[in-house]
Amino acid sequence: MSEERDLLANRQAKRQRWLAQGGGYPNAFRRSDLAETLHATYADADKPQLEEARFTASVCGRLMLRRVMGKASFITVQDSSGQIQCFLRKNDMGEEAYDAFKDLTDIGDIVGVRGVLMRTDKGELTVQAQSLELLNKTLRPLPEKFHGVTDQEIRYRQRYLDLIMNDESRAVFKTRSRVIARMREFFDGRGFLEVETPMMHSIPGGATARPFVTHHNALDLELYLRVAPELFLKRLVVGGFERVYEVNRNFRNEGLSTRHNPEFTMLEFYQAYADYKDLMALTDELLAALCTDVVGSPTISYQGLELDFSKPSAQMTMAESLVALGGMDESSVDDEDALRARLQTLNLAADPGWGVGKLQLEVFEAQVEERLAEPTFITQYPAEVSPLARRCDHNDAVTDRFELFIGGREYANGFSELNDPVDQADRFAAQAALKGTGDDEAMHFDQDYIDALEVGLPPTAGEGIGIDRLVMLLTDSPSIRDVLLFPLMRPQ
């Protein structure tokens, strides 16, 4: 601790000398070049060519390496694009400026450098400094440079340190940005309209999840952070916007895990005159485009699992999956007693009020989900657990719904939308009854949405895709916290 105090005191003293010499966190330096651009532009220029041409450059960023050798020094400056080496010499900068550099700067400081491009004897592109300006005197040292930030707690709680020190982390979040941009391009190119819907709802809906509750003082009104934008997006389809999508933040009052964060990002989209089969095909197209355009190949590796998105995903009904992967007999899949017995063997409690559909889902989640390694659409979810999905024409106990699983995790949920207002009202009533028995995740009865359905929702299909999990997949990240800039953490 005494060593750390000495380091902090030394930086404070340098700051005071800097201020006394006329410093003061200046904001006039303007760079003309990024490190990455310089490396790309002059990749083929050899040492004699650079000496003859004397190309000028101005760079700025964080001081990551500092080697002082008497009258000459090398530093490495890191900007948002990468790193560039700079060569500082007393004869070029002048004695006063060079001595100020040696006296005042430390690793981690923000600096601006102007000079001409050169190539060292080892062949490294370098800015030969004519001037250096200290732009920010940092008061805390960076983590040990050779190991970066390896402590997970520090990485998540102090993401700025992680981004400064770890190239891999910066790459993950750049990929995340490209994924979302490519998603928008994909849907814009297919005639979808990007929209924004409310983040605060007077009635939470669109998913079976426990909401966060807040209060609006002026209206003295209890409000909920949205668990999903679904019901508002479908209102827009009623209004005539036949293809809409939203990249949105959702909030669900649930636990933390490698797969879950209470605040997360979803893509939701709705298409009139389409069904769930159309959206499964569209989802396969989207995944192939993202892998090819963002990662560079339709075949990717995730945590040792090789995945090929150049071909359509497998398909299996929930009942079929319970037999093929859950070990149940075909005759017992719809048998309530058999399903309850299976849950009992798994040491899982079954509520007495659960019907066959809910029991099937519980067995599926316990025994089947984690075995779905290859991209697989599970279809025909029970109506009991699908309160917003259209019933199947040939079996009204199940719905025209699918979920996409990859590597044992759910990535997407979609279905042909229920557009019968009477059926929807009945299902809302059933959900409200469950809420009355203490089910915090059951839906409320939303009369305004019923009113919208009575105006007429065209035959429509809709889907939600978890962007955080998708970025995990495309960056080979094991935890959702690795792809969230600022994941929720328990206070220290």
Write the layout of secondary structure elements.
Layout lengths: L1 H19 L14 H7 L5 H7 L2 E14 L2 E7 L4 E7 H4 L1 H10 L5 E10 L5 E12 L15 H6 L1 H7 L1 H22 L4 E2 L5 E2 L11 E4 L4 E5 L4 H9 L4 E9 L11 E10 L3 H20 L3 E4 L2 E4 L5 E4 H7 L11 H10 L10 H13 L7 E4 L11 E2 L2 E5 L1 E6 L2 E8 L4 H16 L10 H10 L3 E7 H9 L17
Parallel strand pairs: 3-5, 6-10, 14-15
Antiparallel strand pairs: 1-2, 1-4, 2-3, 4-5, 7-9, 8-9, 10-11, 11-20, 12-13, 15-18, 16-17, 18-19, 19-20
Helix pairs in contact: 8-10, 8-16, 9-15, 11-13, 12-13, 14-15
Structure, explained:
The structure is a single chain. This protein is α+β, with helices and mostly antiparallel strands and 492 residues long. It has two domains: 2-142, OB fold (Dihydrolipoamide Acetyltransferase, E2P) (Beta Barrel); 164-313 and 374-482, BirA Bifunctional Protein, domain 2. 36% of the residues lie in helices and 26% in strands. It is built from 16 helices and 20 strands. The chain has an eight-stranded mixed beta sheet with strand order 6-10-11-20-19-18-15-14, sandwiched between helices. It has a five-stranded mixed β-barrel with strand order 1-2-3-5-4. Helix 8 (167-188) packs across helix 10, helix 12 (336-345) runs parallel beside helix 13 and helix 14 packs antiparallel against helix 15. The longest helix is centred in the middle third of the chain and has 22 residues, at 167-188. 35% of the residues are buried.
